[in-house]
Amino acid sequence: MLDQHYDPHAAEARIYPLWETAGCFKPSMDTSAEAYSIVIPPPNVTGVLHMGHALNNTLQDVLARYHRMRGKNVLWQPGADHAGIATQMVVERQLAESGANEDRRSLGREAFVERVWDWKAESGGKITEQLKRLGASCDWSREKFTMGEREDPDNQMVRAVRKVFVDLYNKGLIYRDKRLVNWDPHFQTAISDLEVEQREVDGHFWHLRYPLADGVTYEHPVFDEDGEPAGTETRDYLVVATTRPETMLGDTGVAVHPDDERYKDLVGKFVDLPIVNRRIPIVADEHADPEKGSGAVKITPAHDFNDFQVGERCDLPKLNILTDTASIVGGQDERGAPIADGAAEAAQIPQELRGLDRYEARDKIVAKFEALGLLQEIESKKIEQPFGDRSGVVIEPYLTDQWYVDAESMAKPAMAAVREGKTRFVPETWEKTYFNWMDNIQPWCVSRQLWWGHRIPVWYGPEVRQRDDGAVDILDPRGKIFVGENFDVVARLAQEYYGAPAVQVGTAFEQETLLFSDENDASKAPDWAKGADMRPKKYPLIQDPDVLDTWFSSALWPFSTQGWPENTEALQTFYPTATLVTAFDIIFFWVARMMMMGIEFMDGEVPFKDVYIHALVLDEKGQKMSKSKGNAMDPLELVDEYGADALRFTMAAMAAQGRNIRLSKQRVEGYRNFGTKLWNAARFCQMNECVSPAEDVDPAALNETVNKWILGELAKTAAEVARGIEDYRFNEAAGAAYRFIWNVFCDWYLELIKPLLNGEDEAAKAETRAVAAWTLDQTLKLLHPFMPFLTEELWEKLAEFGPERPGFLMLQAWPDFGPEWTDAAASAEIDWVIRLITEVRGVRGDLNVPPGAKPVLTLANASDEAQGRARRHDGVLTRLARLDRIEIANVAPDGTVNAVLDEATLCLDIAGLIDLDAERARLDKEIGKLEGDIAGIDKKLSNEKFVARAPAEVVQEQHTRKADAEAVVEKLKASRQRLLELG
RNA sequence: GGGCGGUUAGCUCAGCGGUAGAGCACUACGUUGACAUCGUAGGGGUCACUGGUUCGAUCCCAGUACCGCCCACCA
């Protein structure tokens, strides 16, 4: 016998391993079945399960379980993301906290990366275990990691990334460029536009005076106190405003608008840049907005995105003044490289400013301007500033060499695929977001100056030129780029270029050198180089020290997880995937890039047919929960408290909500109660010896109306649940199952069959037991995608006294019901029964009839059909409406309280039990409401246009409603009259 | 500056061209042999505002107000 309460923890801990060891999560690989695949959005390896994951993975699991039950060859592909910055950050923090006085740099690259792998081995599997607790039916035997496996540095996941990089390079879709990037001074790496977030902060505008060179002056308009023009004054300076005064060290020009009359004569002249005493030109450029500030704008091409373009247009030098940590440069940058452009100018920077942090330098520079009498004004105002989304520090535009993906070219087919319907967004409105971004897409900076990630498969060697006499000049010691999927390939390319074979020395992590030389151990040479002619020349090749943006490898996820670049069976079977389930915040980061890469490398085939975008789960403050921000609330606490099924059901039921979900604990509690309700319904069935029949119930063979009826309700529900899941309307699917179980099966069916189960009619009893048990079984199937543990547990426990189950519930076929399962007459009859009981209960409730009172119900003016129904269901009617008995009469007996059910009047002999005034008030209220309805309908029907133009059935419906209402009013008025006569 | 979305019961939110819904909360009653993690009944909304389309608008369109999000080169 079932316990009184379901114990989620015991069931979850017991059942999940059973499923897993039985291989229930593996695809059937049934070639005759349709394949259905989902790739998990790989959680960060540093991640802990938060509400967003709970929602995201619940929905995926609902889909996976549903389609599995539909007989499809289902793969839910799990895995994790190496999460470059986030993971490196975690391990760096750990180093700092360990007190061992170690940091990344002191450790060195190779050792540090080993530490990260160690960390991953220790703590990286956490989220996987958490997903299991949710009930996720991923095929864990296929779990993937975006960096592959540590033991195999040349593993397939790594090869996939390298191949993509090399192929894109060879197609010209990846290129190296020197341009401004968003530089994160904390992590000392470039980041992409998407990793920058604009925040409004309190800031200042410093208005600075730049003296004009060569004694030039001009007339500048002035205004009086009322803002009226008041002539001009002669000025020997220009005013520029800036939020970052320290950048003035890098100014190489001042721009004014070409049409700005005030400054027209100054174009072509110069200013003397204070502090560094550099002459810089005044140029005309449309970027300068005459409306803003003074209309003159300082130009710092190396540290401002606008100014960079002005610099290009006006041919101004790009002078870098910052190091990697955003300090003022000395003679060389932080990485030891000499200042490339403008070394002489850099040398002008006063010694006391060199090496200062940007903000310290700012203060000093402002002070210097003030001391020089050149600080016109400090204006306080809110300014938008860019912050690194991981580091939280202010980003600096920084001029560096980086690798870029030509996203604009790749976006075109990716947009076309959505336009042509190859990939569909659900809800469709997210297409707009996708297109909007893709239309304005910028080159994607994919290189990161980090250590944890996929090393860029690029080597730099000396660019050489052979002179006629055979001697070789080195034009640029690192100017020759070799791009290849592995060392051998690059070595071969180098051999072609240098005409000498290659030998690798050093390790993969130290900036290894590839020497073309006979001075090296020839035994280390690759096969092709053995015995080759060695010449005594050395051309060191150095691998690019940078790694790729994490999203570069994530973009390959739908095919890299399936074994690409090998053409595996998995790849053929499960690509393209059926559905991608994700939140809108990574449409740009991930979805768009998977589209681009998938189409590019999978022969134009999109990576997924549907993209289902669900809401974002926010924390209590309405803040976006982030993987590394640490503000995520822990869904596992809810699992501990209410069970995984309750949380899952909550997630599914909330899936229709808008963009934000703020989870309420009460809701989870409510769905926990729902589980208990079902559990107890099953317990009731068990107590009444409702044992599942060995074979399916045959609807044609049933005698009892109530049994025919429940099968129709079940059929309707099964269809609703299926449609809800297939249309990604999870809330509707969950709601249909919820309503059926609670409001139909428990509230009515079980109550209606109690007389049968307790009665003497053995045939009826046997039929009812079978139908009840069987219906419950089907219900478990319908609910299984949402509440897998509870349903599996019941499936097993209910089989205790019946025929053996054909295996796990999760592997049962989804029930489909044809029209033969619905019996309209039975539905009408039970509907009548329910309405009668509801009417009587309503009257009793309104009039405060004591629950113990059992009045006689007289059915007056009832049709033969109604009389028959009353007779047939006498047992349940008297029981559920709490009646003494039911009598039939032609007219309503005096002294009764009345309600109306279709043509019949329901008469209860409770006059002695109630307050007659209350009853009159009840009737008046009822009559008043109906008369209001009738008036409304009359108004409609008297509208000629309505009658003429509305569809006939709508007009007819109004007539019917009016007639029905009038009939009821008439009966209620008669009832009221009799009541008055009674006194 | 550009774009997107929201405004429905006390709360959190579904819904939708033709009688306004759920869960929770609230009120009254109830230890009826599945379930008090429950049952029965009930109260509660001029569906933000203003126009328009329509026979008919909470729903479609336009505008307004308020709230929120995303994108955009930080003078």
In short:
With 983 residues, this protein is an alpha/beta fold. The chain is 42% helix and 18% strand. The structure holds one RNA strand of 75 nucleotides.
Sequence-ordered SSE layout with sheet pairings:
Blueprint: H1 8-21, E1 35-39, H2 51-69, E2 73-77, E3 79-80, H3 84-98, H4 104-107, H5 109-123, H6 126-134, E4 144-145, H7 156-170, E5 174-184, E6 189-191, E7 196-211, E8 218-223, E9 229-235, E10 237-242, E11 253-256, E12 270-273, E13 278-284, E14 296-299, H8 305-314, H9 343-346, H10 358-371, E15 375-388, E16 396-405, H11 407-419, E17 424-426, H12 430-439, E18 444-445, E19 447-448, E20 458-466, E21 472-483, H13 487-498, E22 503-504, E23 514-515, E24 542-543, E25 547-548, H14 550-554, H15 557-560, H16 569-574, E26 577-583, H17 587-601, E27 608-614, E28 616-617, H18 635-642, H19 644-654, E29 660-661, H20 665-687, H21 705-726, H22 730-758, H23 762-783, H24 788-798, H25 824-846, E30 856-860, H26 864-872, H27 874-880, E31 885-889, E32 897-901, E33 904-908, H28 916-941, H29 944-949, H30 952-982
Parallel strand pairs: 1-2, 3-4, 11-13, 17-27, 26-27, 28-29, 30-31
Antiparallel strand pairs: 5-6, 5-16, 7-10, 7-15, 8-9, 11-14, 12-13, 16-18, 19-25, 20-21, 20-24, 22-23, 30-33, 32-33
The chain binds one RNA strand of 75 nucleotides through strand 7, strand 10, strand 14, helix 8 and strand 15.
